[in-house]
Write a structure and sequence with these properties.
The complex is a heterodimer. Chain A is mainly α. Chain A is built from 6 helices and no strands. The longest helix of chain A has 22 residues. The model of chain A has no long low-confidence stretch (mean pLDDT about 90). By secondary structure, chain B is mainly α. Chain B has a two-stranded antiparallel ribbon. In chain B, helix 4 runs antiparallel to helix 11 and helix 10 packs across helix 11. Classes of the chains: A mainly alpha, B mainly alpha. Chains A and B meet through helix 1, helix 2, helix 3, helix 4 and helix 5 of A and helix 7, strand 2, helix 8, helix 15 and helix 16 of B.
């Protein structure tokens, strides 16, 4: 199944990208030196389309084990992180880290505390103090930034 | 001679030496941790080097590269789990030897072979890189374009994917490199109204995503099964008998590793496989291979460590990465505003030689790290993945944010991680994507410059001897394996390997 689905998906995405590239601004011919901005990406997209067709025809199909529950849970936690990061980046990181540790079988309180509270806090302090990185303001970071 | 000494002098700063020692230990730990390797380690640590001066920043990345490659052998021998893919062949003989109660001897052999291989390759790097750069000094845009095409064509043979899938992954990387303002016309492409995308997609978040975050998902599928550590009393340096048996193997594998490393995009994994096979082919006792042969360990370890020095030759001299980790280091060079290529050895010679010295130093340090720390570092492998990977994720996300302090980069890293996971699952290696992303901009720029230079008559590129040579090499790299397979099928002697 994936023998056709993945190359077809790739071709579809390339066709969309190709269509988008036809909407790029063009340089008037009199000023043009070399290529139009769309020429190069279009050339590469056509190469990908051609190779994807060849993959469908010639490449042997691969047998896959189904994606495991842990991988799906982890991807679900990515989504949770992406949403919580809108409120506060480190809140998102803490919830993600604790959730991932629990989902992967960690049941010790100190273990979950270590990854969800201590490690994001230490990483924040390291980047804030040593590397002078300014993080986006949020629920928790405002406690530090005031 | 003067830049050579200036480079050494720059490296002898005590703070830098302490930093490099810490990076060596960090690299060994990264190499021993489950799922992490030199490429992931370098990608994760790249954001930490942003605020540093170029010499310490790149010296740290190259140190991580060398140390993590070396450390793969420790876990390969003691728990039959290669810390990095480059050490997979070390398992074949290292673990059986350890099971026979000779773990110390196996680790001693791996340490000495790695050190000698690494030193030989760095010496080759010191000699070959400036020569290659001098040769490239006369390249015009068509030659550079042809060389970059050749570098990209070598992607066909790397990673776990088939050649066609590798090229597709590389081409996707090239398309991603076109996001942002076109260099020649300043027209915006694929930016979807995001101002942050005008400068293009950053290398760092994509690398963190495809190497770090996608590995988290791969690890999620492998949560079961705990490795067993083989106990050893102490590491043993090879005996005189062992040296007599393996010195030729070490030299041969060092040569092979350095050469493979120099080839664009080929890295330590391929080098170790060829080094191991050649060690078996030339051995007087090939029947011992796979059952605990010290020659097997030496062949594999000398080759994979020498590939690190080799891989830095095209990276620094031509701006074409010699391996996946070299691609991350190349990204680091670009982030620091350094331009790899011929001018590096004229305008930034002190920097280039400081990097060479750093690599030499780290290779010498392996002896001490291997002798005194192997037992301890092998225990690092037992850090529970449910503790390790949430912390790696936090570092990945903060690292992706740190470079441009942009939340968009966080989401790019996350997206690249998920995309990288599915690519790997469907047989598309992520390494070509990373290299395509780095070389894509360069490829387009050089094509544009070539067309301007040749007055839009692109076919004139084939009339220039050097660019023609690179195009011929490209065709050989792409179609050579197929032609060879065809020959093998027709010739019964070749197909049976006699």
């Amino acid at each position: 199944m994936t023998r056709y689905v993945v190359p077809c998906g790739t071709i579809l995405l390339c066709l969309i990208a190709y269509w988008l590239s036809t909407r790029f601004d063009e340089v008037p011919p009199i000023l043009l030196r070399g290529m139009q901005p769309a020429d190069f990406p279009q050339m590469v997209l056509l190469l990908i389309i051609a190779l994807s067709v060849l993959v469908m025809v010639f490449d042997p199909p691969i047998e896959h084990a189904p994606i495991g529950l842990n991988a799906w849970t982890s991807m679900g936690l990515f989504a949770v992180f992406a949403l919580l990061a809108q409120i506060d980046l480190f809140l998102g990181l803490g919830v993600f880290a604790g959730g991932l540790a629990y989902a992967w079988g960690e049941r010790r309180i100190w273990g979950i505390g270590l990854v969800s509270v201590l490690s994001p806090a230490l990483i924040f302090l390291l980047f804030d103090q040593a590397f002078r990185i300014r993080f986006p303001r949020g629920l928790l970071t405002d406690l530090w930034y005031g | 001679m003067e830049p050579l000494l200036a480079g050494l002098y720059a490296l002898l700063d005590p703070h830098l030496l302490v930093l490099l020692f810490a990076a060596t230990l960090g690299g060994v730990i990264i190499g021993a941790l489950p799922g992490l390797n030199a490429t992931t380690g370098a990608a994760l640590l790249l954001p930490f080097t942003i605020t540093m001066e170029p010499i310490p920043a790149i010296a740290i990345l190259t140190t991580i590269y060398c140390a993590a490659t070396f450390a793969g052998a420790i876990t390969a021998i003691l728990i039959n789990t290669p810390g990095t893919s480059a050490s997979a062949t070390t398992c074949l003989d290292g673990f059986p030897l350890a099971q026979r109660g000779e773990a110390g001897r196996a680790l001693g052999m791996a340490t000495v072979s790695s050190t000698i291989g690494g030193i030989i390759s760095v010496v080759c790097l010191m000699l070959a890189a400036p020569l290659m750069a001098r040769m490239a000094y006369n390249f015009a845009p068509p030659e550079y374009f042809a060389l970059t095409v050749f570098g990209i064509s070598m992607l066909a043979t790397i990673g776990d994917g088939t050649p066609m899938k590798n090229i597709i992954a590389g081409a996707i990387g090239i398309v991603l490199a076109t996001v942002g303002k076109d260099l020649l016309t300043t027209v915006e492409r694929f930016t979807f109204g995001f101002n942050e995308l005008s400068e293009g997609i950053g290398f760092v978040p994509v690398m963190i995503g495809i190497f770090g975050i996608s590995e988290l998902l791969v690890q999620a599928d492998r949560l079961n099964g705990e490795p067993k550590l083989i106990h050893m009393k102490a590491i043993k340096l090879p005996s005189r008998d062992d040296y007599r048996r393996v010195w030729k193997t070490i030299l041969r594998s060092s040569g092979i590793g350095t050469f493979i490393g120099i080839l664009p995009a080929e890295g330590a994994t391929v080098a170790s496989m060829i080094g191991y096979n050649e060690a078996r082919r030339w051995s007087k006792t090939p029947e011992e291979f796979g059952k605990g042969s010290v020659e097997g360990i030496a062949g594999s370890e000398a080759a994979n460590n020498s590939a690190t020095g080799g891989a830095m030759v095209p990276t620094l001299a031509l701006g074409i990465p010699g391996s996946p980790t070299a691609a991350v280091i190349l990204a680091g060079l670009m982030v620091h505003g350094l331009q790899p290529g011929p001018t590096m050895f004229t305008q930034q010679a002190e920097f280039a030689y400081a990097i060479f010295w750093a690599m030499l130093l780290v290779n010498i340090t392996f002896i001490f790290v291997g002798l005194f720390g192997a037992k301890l570092f092998a225990r690092v492998t037992f850090v529970p993945v449910q503790i390790l990977w949430p912390i790696v994720f936090c570092f990945s996300i903060v690292g992706a944010y740190a470079l441009d302090q942009s939340m968009l980069d966080v989401y790019i890293a996350l997206g690249a991680g998920v995309a990288g996971y599915f690519m790997r699952r469907f047989g598309y290696s992520v390494v070509p994507l990373a290299i395509g992303l780095i070389l894509g901009g360069m490829l387009e720029k050089r094509l544009g410059q070539s067309l301007i230079m040749l007055d839009d008559q692109w076919w004139l590129m084939f009339t220039r001897p050097l660019s023609l040579l690179f195009f011929v090499l490209t065709i050989l790299a792409l179609f050579g394996p197929y032609v060879w397979r065809l020959f093998k099928q027709r010739d019964p002697l070749l197909s049976t390997g006699e």
